[in-house]
Recover the amino acids of this structure.
């Protein structure tokens, strides 16, 4: 679970950087990267939810 948390943090940091570049500088490529990263983040968060529920049950 610790590895999953670290991966979520790393992906979120990448998302945050790209999202800020898009918002502050109008960087279209950064916006594309942010959207792609958001999909990866969504998958990781679903995995976290599943893992967390399993841990609380067992």
């Amino acid at each position: 679970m610790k590895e999953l948390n670290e991966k979520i943090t790393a992906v979120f940091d990448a998302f945050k950087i790209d999202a800020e570049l898009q918002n502050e500088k109008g960087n279209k490529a950064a916006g594309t990267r942010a959207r792609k990263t958001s999909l990866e983040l969504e998958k990781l968060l679903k995995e976290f939810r599943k893992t967390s529920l399993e841990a609380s049950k067992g």
